[in-house]
Fold:
Amino acid sequence: MTSPSILIFGANGQVGFELRKSLAAGARLCAFDRATCDVADPEQIKAAIATCQPDIIVNASAYTAVDRAETEEGLAHAVNATAPSVIATEAARRGALMIHYSTDYVFDGRKSEPYTETDAPNPLSAYGRTKLAGEESITRAAPQHLIIRSSWVVGAHGANFMKTILRLAKERDVLRIVADQFGAPTSAALLAEVTAQVIGRYLGGEPVPSGLYHVTNAGSTSWHGFACHIIDWATRHQIPLKTKPESVMPIATEDYPLPAVRPKNSRLSTRKAADAFGLTLPPWQHSMDSILEQIV
Ligand SMILES: NC(=O)c1ccc[n+]([C@@H]2O[C@H](COP(=O)([O-])OP(=O)(O)OC[C@H]3O[C@@H](n4cnc5c(N)ncnc54)[C@H](OP(=O)(O)O)[C@@H]3O)[C@@H](O)[C@H]2O)c1
Structure:
């Protein structure tokens, strides 16, 4: 039997980079980054799919500049909504499985409990609106699809909160970090591993029901709690920092105004994905420590 063909869009992002490692075994991989396929151009998407002839398409491309999206919603929509719609239509035409990623920012954060897949989205930002439009177009167009919603993604490759905190802590004596938004820092490598596990099940003929799934690391914290964890780890590992652990100050969202409004509660219930695919999701601290080891 010939090995299955898997196409990755956004192969140089945090998740895309990890996917290239996790999906490499036993498959023909076609990995496209922005330079080789600009997904804002539907013709480039169609050409990439025609070249690769994939059995499975994993879309890790996204416009993820949450604040910039407020003034660039057209481009964010092209990447986060139109591109997934084109990919989904092509996947349906080929009978391919489509796997896509979405975000906690589709919710308004007013719920006090973790969000489930059946909770109604109500995005507060342009980024959230475009990501929700992407989810909806995939649900309409691709008969075989998985939409993996996650939160606060961090990888060894790419820009993220962890790297920003480490940089700032080398420059400043005091850090003021938002302490009233809660979510689960989630490893890009974990998302890639879960994707590989699901693909393994699919190729093995096990059921992979289409739909939305929430996948994050276990547990939750605030951005302030996450920053404290990073500074504590770096201090224990004798990384020279100007910021001492006791100098990471909690502040309110209102004290750090940004163009895009974020949900206060970004916590996602992962029960559906864990039950459907037999996942054990490690605590966020465990995965973040392993990324810190790679970065530092
Ligand atoms: N990051 C988070 O905190 C977070 C949280 C929840 C959900 N998610 C979702 O998880 C998925 C993966 O996110 P990530 O953290 O891996 O994001 P990322 O690191 O920003 O990666 C996104 C990739 O998409 C590429 N891209 C952007 N515009 C493109 C275009 N027009 N054509 C082709 N490629 C384009 C980017 O290319 P360049 O490198 O050239 O910019 C980047 O490599 C996304 O669907 C995101 O919405 C992320």
The domain at 5-160+185-218+266-282 is CATH 3.40.50.720 (Rossmann fold). The chain has a mean pLDDT of 96. The longest strand covers residues 97-103.
